[in-house]
Amino acid sequence: MSTPKALITGILGQDGAYLAQFLLEQGYHVYGLMRRYSNPTFENLQYLGIADEVEYVSGDMSDEASLLQIVKFTQPDEIYNLAAQSFVGSSWDQPRLTTEINGLGTLHLLNAMKIFAPYARFYQASTSEMFGGGSDENGEQTELTSFYPKSPYAISKLYAYWITVNFRESFGLYATNGILFNHESPLRGKEFVTRKISDGVARIKLGLQNELRLGNLDSKRDWGFAGDYVKAMWKMLQQEEGSDYILSTGESHSIREFLDIAFGYVGIEDWTPYVTTDPRFKRPAEVKTLQGKSDKARAQLNWEPEVSFEELVTMMVDADLQRLKSEPTS
Ligand code: NDP
Ligand code: GDP
Predict the structure, then answer these.
(1) Is there a contact between 298 and 232 (Cβ–Cβ < 8 Å)?
(2) In 151-276, alpha helices (H)
(3) Is 129 part of the annotated catalytic residue set?
(4) Which one, of 174, 170, 221, 214, lies nearest residue 80 by Cα?
(5) Rounded (10°) angle between helices 64-74 and 105-116
(6) Residue 133 DSSP label
(7) What angle, 0 to 180 degrees and rounded to 10, lies between the N-to-C axes of helices 255-265 and 309-326?
(8) pLDDT class for 43, splitting at 50, 70, 90?
(9) Measured from the CA of 181, which atom of ligand 1 is nearest?
(10) How confident is the model at residue 37 (pLDDT cuts 50, 70, 90)?
(11) Does ligand 2 have an atom closer than 6 angstroms to the CB of 29?
């Protein structure tokens, strides 16, 4: 059998790195799409020791011609569309760019697959933000919960979700949405609240910083480990046909609980003297609580998350402590 080929967009991001590592372990040839940068950072792939094992292709989600060319050239068996302007907060500052990359970029990639690789299998990185906090009577989100997006990011992702469903239904393509709840790791971008806290706590512990400025401490998220979630992305593309699946832990925790565990881990029981609320980090519209019910994925994909909430928080603080001890200026 010939070597299976996967094309990953967003290869330099958190999920791109973990997914590439997993697919390489499964024997895939991995093409990683990255946009042109004057000074690209391969940090995440280097952290996992796989930066030299990926074949990089240059393109941009907002440039349809580049995606047509890449799909024609790579002839992938599986396409994982992870590229995005992925930060909710920035989507109010750059709503059009967010829409172009996340929404129209997905259309461009699906179109390229339809023309040059219609046999391929497509994974779309959809998000629990599309629910906007709407829920069933138990306060949870399922594949049947109505969408009510509350940010330009969530709205752009809703377009991508539906265009993926539409290409599946209109053209018979294998196209699947993974509706993923928040997932984190030591590779999470530092603007996201979990990594901002783990990095901040490590700096405070090492005497490099004495304050952590945050926004709304009361919102709750269903946080899992990115390394667990990428395995299910692959499983979604090994089914008989395309479909849509929620991935979540089923537990919801507040920012305060995250702070309790993170500070507790470095021996600080009372974090209140270190944490300041800063209105700059509050959002024009907030998604208060997300808690997913991933019964479909657990039954059909035989998947479940392996890392607990507490293990996730301590893993992240630990990784930042180790990094800052060896590179205090990073
Ligand atoms: P990251 O922000 O870490 O990675 C996104 C990647 O997309 C970056 O490497 C970025 O490249 C790339 N990208 C951005 N714009 C473009 C563009 N115009 N052309 C090509 N590449 C581009 O996100 P994650 O890895 O955390 O998430 C992966 C996907 O999953 C995203 O689509 C995200 O929205 C979605 N998602 C994530 C969740 C989470 O909790 N992590 C939850 C649900 C969905 P560059 O390095 O050049 O900036
Ligand atoms: P999101 O769920 O994709 O928006 O992930 P984030 O990590 O960016 O935000 C999760 C929650 O943390 C949201 O409800 C934010 O309002 C809240 N939050 C509180 N303080 C901060 C902060 O300083 N930065 C970020 N990014 N989020 C914060």
Answers:
(1) no
(2) 152-171, 193-205, 226-236, 255-265
(3) yes
(4) 174
(5) 40
(6) T
(7) 50
(8) very high
(9) 42
(10) confident
(11) no
Rounded-to-integer distance, Cα 231 and Cα 309, Å: 18
Which residue in 35, 1, 38 sits closest to 16, CA to CA? 35
Q: For position 134, what pLDDT does the model report?
A: 82
Instruction: For the beta carbon of residue 22, count every other beta carbon within 10 angstroms.
Output: 17
pTM of the predicted model as reported, rounded to 2 decimal places:
0.98
C-alpha 128/C-alpha 180 separation (Å) is 6
Q: Which atom of ligand 1 is nearest to the CA of 81?
A: 32
Instruction: Name the residue of 14, 127, 193, 275 whose CB sits within 8 Å of the most ligand 2 atoms, as the mutation to test its pocket.
Output: 193
Q: Are 176 and 242 in contact (CB under 8 A)?
A: yes
Q: Whose CA is nearest to atom 5 of ligand 2?
A: 192
What SS3 state is found at 78? strand
Q: Which residue among 33, 48, 82 is best mutated to probe the pocket of ligand 1, counting the most ligand atoms within 8 A of its Cβ?
A: 82
Distance of CA 158 to the CA centre of its chain: 15
Q: Is 169 noted as a catalytic residue in this protein?
A: no
Structure tokens at 165: 């469903």
From ligand 2's centre to the CA of 169, what distance in Å? 35
275-321 confidence digits (pLDDT tens): 999 999 999 999 999 999 999 999 999 999 999 999 999 999 999 99
**How far, CA to CA in Å, does 140 sit from each of 146, 167, 171, 176, 298?**
11, 28, 32, 22, 16
Measured from the Cα of 213, ligand 2's closest atom is 23
Q: Which two tokens stand for residue 192?
A: 């996201």
Give the nearest ligand 2 atom to 282 CA: 16
CA–centroid distance, residue 293 to ligand 1 (Å):
24
Active site residue 241: no
Q: Which of 159, 154, 166, 87 is nearest to 122 (CA)?
A: 166
Instruction: For residue 247, name the pLDDT band (cuts at 50, 70, 90).
Output: very high
